Amino acid sequence: MRRSGRAALSVLCSSAVLLTATACGGSEDTSASGGGGDDNTITWWHNSNNEPGRGYYEQVAADFEDANPGVEVEVVAMAHEDMVDRLAAAFQSGDVPDVYMERGGGELADHVEAGLVRDLTQEADETIEKLGGSVSGWQVDGQTYALPFSLGVVGFWYNTALFEQAGITEPPATMEELYTAIDKLKAAGIVPISVGAGDKWPAAHYWYYTALRACGQDVLEDAVTSLDFTDECFVQAGETLEELLATEPFNPGFLTTPAQEGASSASGLLATDQVAMELAGHWEPGVMQGLTDDGAGLGENTGWFAFPEIEGGEGDPEAQLGGGDAWAVSTDAPDASVDLVNYLLSDEVQTGFAENDMGLPTNPAATDAVSDPALAQLLEVRDAAPYIQLYFDTAFGASIGGAMNDAIALMFADQATAQDVVDATVQAADMEK
Amino acid sequence: MTRVTAAPEATDPGAAVTRGADARRVTGRGRSGKRRQRLEIVLFVTPALALMATFVAYPVYSAARMSFYDWKGFGPMVDSVGLQNYVRVLGDEVFTDAVMHNFIIVFASIAVQLPLGLALALLLNRRIRARGLLRTIIFVPYVLAEVIAGVVWFQLLQPRTGVLEKMLSSVGIPVPEQGFLGTPDLALATVFVVLTWKYLGLAVLLFLAGLQGVPDELYEAAQLDGASWWQVQRRIAVPLIAPTIRVWIFLSMIGSLQLFDMVWILTGGGPANATTTMATYLVSMGTQRSNFGIAGAASVVLFLIGFAMAVAYQALVLRRDTKADA
């Protein structure tokens, strides 16, 4: 009796472990109670968890409170990953903070559909006008639901000293020139490019860019809304990427290399002179600074060039891939939240944002305040671009974007063809329709 | 489902107490005593039942319910799709491969860790020099936090810069171009080696504990009869710790089916889905891709596989151990 009881109990316990491991949360509670509690308290979540950003936002909140007597701003600063997780949980429970960050695209459209986000079109019309085309990524059916405060572009960050060592004088402007540069770097015993394909999205950025260079703006805009990928240019994008992959330009073990964590990540390899370049966004200098002992990253050896042109491609070579962060207001937030968001995008706050090198400001009044030379260069590129294509995975939403990224990652492992990437995306899109 | 099994399990011992006490007290205070005992049972069992209901039964119900909906993780769960999520999960090559990877780990663990663990346990059961130290060394990996062990191995296995690669190439063993974790054909085997390093300690510990329970008289008697060390191990030690071995197999099997953390840290399921397990599949489908319905269906499949194997093992293998003593 005793032993059989214990044995049965062990089954029970182990199935309990199984159960808790498999049940992945989630409640269907939809009662949105608003984050702040009463009408005079605004909860504001942001991810500027380090100085000077953290202190700067404290100051901004205090200034806003002074200008609006009776209103209190409860600022919650957290690390980016924590914020993403907590926001996901907040959306599940319906208890969303009053002012929070939206990345735009399909994710925002889903939140809008679920009635979680406040329409800012009327209440923030002046700010929207000032920001101009930047807000397009945060519009759904012509209405604006969030105001971007930082908008960056993706390109190749490179080590100028290693390029010089390999005898490359001009950063490559076409794919052919990129292949030549790769050959020269290899000949000099330098690993040309690092990519964090273990995280998938850094690999996917290559396909996004070849698609951006291969496809015309109208085709891409149409694809984002209609989920139609029949245009030949999407296959051509994959074929161009296959050509690049055939030159074997990447760091050894790139299939499991993480994007940004630690010295052996793609960013770490670039920061420590192990590779010559990496395709990454405006966050890269900051990430590299965090990965080097002296906190300087690549320092004065930091260089940047745009993704090269594809011969015969329909896309504008000046167009850039990018994305950014925007302030959104949840449905049940107090009205003062909209004032706060307008204030966050004001000339004054955006200028301070730029002076503290917290990102690439969207308010044109703040453009000149960016002090970091690398970021200032990016800002020029961004503002000269005829259009900025939002990262496809963000634009399509997690479900389609994830399937697309998986297929592209398989292509990097030589297990998917150009057609497979298109097929996987179409298949995931069909499930959404 | 669990609730049904949970209830009799939790009340059983209580029921036994009631019966026993009834017999003793029937002549005593009668009615009020009975009531008091009922109260005691309720008092002792309720907290455990409440915990089970909140943290086991409800999440299972919730995941099972999710599996019948198309749900993105927020807003009302209204878009019922019937069994479509199950069709998708079972038709997804990534998931069926993941199931296969789980079973490869299940069988490889038993085939490799069992003989290895047994050999080490028998060795460490002898009176050898520095036995305590050796036991500690073998057991330390098991005590290490999984994440820390994973991160350390990830760094050791880095191509070019990793220590392991330098050591292997210095003795002339060729290393793969993309590293052990970056080569799809080698990744699962590499993960398995790390898992063996991590969990061998548990097997050795359990077997050693089993060996402590073997009476010394049996060894002495065998020695008097002129049995060799090998004969003693084969005919006496191993058969007598067979119940321990069977329990270890059970634990190893369940652990392998749920395998997540080490894979997540070492490869994230890659390269090219070469190391996905059912658990990594459901996490990437759920929290990363917001397909909670599909993740829910995958978790129900994982639960059913785990439950079926546990029950089958219980009925076919462990039954012997439990019967003998009943």
UniProtKB/TrEMBL annotation, chain A:
<dbReference type="InterPro" id="IPR050490">
    <property type="entry name" value="Bact_solute-bd_prot1"/>
</dbReference>
<dbReference type="Pfam" id="PF01547">
    <property type="entry name" value="SBP_bac_1"/>
</dbReference>
<dbReference type="InterPro" id="IPR006059">
    <property type="entry name" value="SBP"/>
</dbReference>
<keyword id="KW-0732">Signal</keyword>
<feature type="signal peptide">
    <location>
        <begin position="1"/>
        <end position="23"/>
    </location>
</feature>
<protein>
    <submittedName>
        <fullName>Carbohydrate ABC transporter substrate-binding protein (CUT1 family)</fullName>
    </submittedName>
</protein>
Automatic annotation (TrEMBL), chain B:
<feature type="domain" description="ABC transmembrane type-1">
    <location>
        <begin position="99"/>
        <end position="313"/>
    </location>
</feature>
<protein>
    <submittedName>
        <fullName>Carbohydrate ABC transporter membrane protein 1 (CUT1 family)</fullName>
    </submittedName>
</protein>
<keyword id="KW-0472">Membrane</keyword>
<dbReference type="Pfam" id="PF00528">
    <property type="entry name" value="BPD_transp_1"/>
</dbReference>
<dbReference type="InterPro" id="IPR000515">
    <property type="entry name" value="MetI-like"/>
</dbReference>
<feature type="transmembrane region" description="Helical">
    <location>
        <begin position="292"/>
        <end position="313"/>
    </location>
</feature>
<keyword id="KW-1133">Transmembrane helix</keyword>
<feature type="transmembrane region" description="Helical">
    <location>
        <begin position="136"/>
        <end position="156"/>
    </location>
</feature>
<feature type="transmembrane region" description="Helical">
    <location>
        <begin position="236"/>
        <end position="260"/>
    </location>
</feature>
<feature type="transmembrane region" description="Helical">
    <location>
        <begin position="103"/>
        <end position="124"/>
    </location>
</feature>
<feature type="region of interest" description="Disordered">
    <location>
        <begin position="1"/>
        <end position="32"/>
    </location>
</feature>
<dbReference type="GO" id="GO:0005886">
    <property type="term" value="C:plasma membrane"/>
</dbReference>
<feature type="transmembrane region" description="Helical">
    <location>
        <begin position="186"/>
        <end position="209"/>
    </location>
</feature>
<keyword id="KW-0812">Transmembrane</keyword>
<keyword id="KW-0813">Transport</keyword>
<dbReference type="InterPro" id="IPR035906">
    <property type="entry name" value="MetI-like_sf"/>
</dbReference>
<keyword id="KW-1003">Cell membrane</keyword>
<comment type="similarity">
    <text>Belongs to the binding-protein-dependent transport system permease family.</text>
</comment>
<dbReference type="GO" id="GO:0055085">
    <property type="term" value="P:transmembrane transport"/>
</dbReference>
<feature type="transmembrane region" description="Helical">
    <location>
        <begin position="41"/>
        <end position="61"/>
    </location>
</feature>
